[in-house]
């Protein structure tokens, strides 16, 4: 009886192992795809963010280089001729240039913060659901691993039961019979 129970138990455990292994392969495939997608999207978002920030920096650097001539033109429009030897005019020029530079830097900081916020929002909206799915797949994979370990232990136990039952079925020969 133990032989048959062991043999059928071994067959069922083997079937359960194969089923779990097939599930694990599907889950692991989905997990690899999800991980790759997260990595690709994360890189894309970071590269786009850097590109936009570099574009803003280049644009503002170009604007900043034109501030001096703009201040001089405003001074000329007010009837003040730009003269580097006139201390009073140079003070006024420096003061206006500093004010214009500060205003430009404030605009630049505001735009940089807008870009950072935009990409953080994209990160939250796009990557967080993907990361949650990846985590769920990882949990399912871990669960299947533990189920597989249990199925393997069941297989070994049934195999031992089958072997013990086979020993009981073996004919017992007694020496000296016959005549």
| Proportion of residues in extended strands | under 5%
N-to-C order of helices and strands:
HHH
Q: How would a textbook summarize the main sheet?
A: none
How many structural domains in the coordinates? 1
> What's the β-strand tally?
0
Query: Which consecutive residue ranges, at least 5 long each, have pLDDT under 50?
Result: none
Radius of gyration: 39 Å
Mean model confidence by pLDDT: 87
Tell the overall outline.
rod-shaped
Structural class: mainly alpha
Helix proportion: over 70%
Please report the number of helical segments. Answer: 3
Cα(first) to Cα(last) distance is 34 Å
Give a quick precis of the structure.
This protein has about 180 residues and is an all-alpha fold. The protein is built from three helices and no strands.
């Amino acid at each position: 009886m133990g032989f048959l129970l062991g043999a059928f138990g071994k067959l069922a455990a083997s079937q359960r192992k194969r089923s779990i292994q097939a599930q694990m392969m599907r889950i692991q495939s989905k997990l690899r795809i999800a991980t790759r997608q997260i990595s690709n999207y994360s890189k894309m978002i970071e590269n786009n963010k850097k590109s936009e920030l570099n574009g803003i920096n280049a644009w503002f650097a170009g604007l900043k280089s034109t501030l001096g001539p703009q201040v001089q033109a405003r001074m000329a429009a007010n009837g003040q001729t730009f003269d580097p030897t006139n201390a009073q005019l140079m003070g006024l020029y420096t003061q206006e240039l500093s004010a214009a530079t500060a205003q430009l830097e404030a605009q630049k900081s505001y735009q940089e913060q807008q870009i950072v916020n935009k990409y953080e929002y994209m990160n939250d909206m796009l990557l967080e659901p993907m990361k949650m799915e990846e985590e769920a797949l990882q949990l399912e994979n871990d669960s299947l691993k533990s189920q597989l370990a249990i199925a393997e232990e069941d297989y070994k136990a049934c195999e031992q039961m089958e072997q013990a039952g086979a020993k009981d079925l073996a004919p017992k020969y007694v020496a000296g019979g016959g005549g």
